[in-house]
Description:
Elements: H1 3-29, H2 33-41, H3 45-56, H4 63-82, H5 87-95, H6 103-111, E1 117-120, E2 123-126, H7 130-137, H8 139-143, H9 161-173, E3 177-191, E4 201-207, E5 216-225, E6 230-231, E7 240-246, E8 253-267, H10 299-309, H11 315-327, H12 343-349, H13 355-368, E9 373-380, E10 388-397, E11 401-405, H14 418-421, E12 427-428, E13 432-436, E14 461-464, E15 467-469, E16 474-483
Amino acid sequence: MPRTRRRHVLFAAILALGAMAATDAALSATDPLPDVIARIDSGDFREATVRIDAALAQPGLDARTRADLEFQRERMRRIRLDFTLTADQARAKLRESIPDLREDEFQRWTQADLLEHMVIDGTPWYFNRSISNLFRVSPEAMARRATPFQRNDGPMENANAYHDEAVADARRTGNSSVAPRRVRVKQSITVDADAVPAGETVRAWIPYPRAIPGRQEDIRFLASLPAKQRIAPESTMQRTVYLEQPAVAGKPTTFSINYELTIFGEHHLIDPDKVTSLGDRPDLAPYLAERPPHIVFTDEMRAFSKKAVGDETNPYRIAKKLFQAVDAIPWGGAREYSTITNISDYALRGNHADCGQQTLLLMTLLRLNGIPSRWQSGMVYSDGTYDNLHDWGALYLAPYGWVPMDVTTGQFNGTRDPEVEWFYLGGLDAYRIAFNDDFGTDFMPAKQHVRSETVDSQRGEVEWAGGNLYFDQWDYSFEAQVLPVAGTGR
Length: 490
């Protein structure tokens, strides 16, 4: 190599080292995490990866920041698992329902984000459930279908005899705990064969209900596989049963629990004119506060609230207006919560939201208006074979105290009885099991690696010494059998 060429190379190397040093200095002087998160949210995965690598190479990086940066790398992987359809694949899938799909329709629905997608490093990738969601959010697309749209709604999503029974019980007795059901449950987790090296210990957490007076009572643990288990104490807000066993080569690893409990419906006969302001209640302060990243009073949130509430001052009537506004957002299948930076903002800005997203949005709006709110979630079941993950919540109304809300099941329009019409603002059915009385809290025993679901806990969690096992490496099942309730004739 000629000497002049070597000088140029050396000079370029010095410049590159100087640029790297400047970048390193900037990274060390500021928290790199917000920039990385913003780049991932905007689809700039390539540059986010560069910045994660640079930040992780810094000496003296604290363990928390290192873990947060490593999770952002994992978040990109999870997003790619949710957004796997190319534009051509999305078109082909949509043509299964709209054979004469026009390109202008596809482009218009894409540009309006009615076909949920993400541009990652310059290439659009469509959400796996974007096609089915389209028919929930676009009447135009629904009208273009060649075949009827098959919904998989649960039996409690329409007013029925159970709601009449619960309201009648509340009126007759004056009690808010009504219309109970006894249920026997089996929950299981099956880890894929060879997901964990043979002989290594597989650790599993299966959700388990807390006793809630007047709602969930007489909980009886029956059995588990393996037999040795550790049930988290009642005080655990996301309660689980912890199990572990060694992996066997070529065989799936299965965990299960069996239990029974009695679940009461809940219905409060609320008179709006009797609802008062909170007064001095420091005990309720945590339920009125922002809780980043998913409960934040953004400017957009304030504007949405003002439009929905107007000049109303009565807390119950404010809650009713906010309930209606969030209920108006169409339900849509959700991407994994761990991939979303701010869930309430995501629900506010999007054109669809699932139960947990709607609940966090309503919780945020209620708190913004001085009405305490909190989270609850678990599983819904039925007298038949239907079951599903579900999230809901509660709000505090003086003098009634905490009353439940389920904005996703929502308002039953067209019913003659207002107590049935507004059943899910102040009431719940008994066909649900609550596993969680808060979101994003720790397990007991604690998980050593980052969770698959960082917000909720309904399917369970699995890990081994080598790391977390994500949802693509195991499956869950839930089976419920409704039993007679002792002493009721039901």
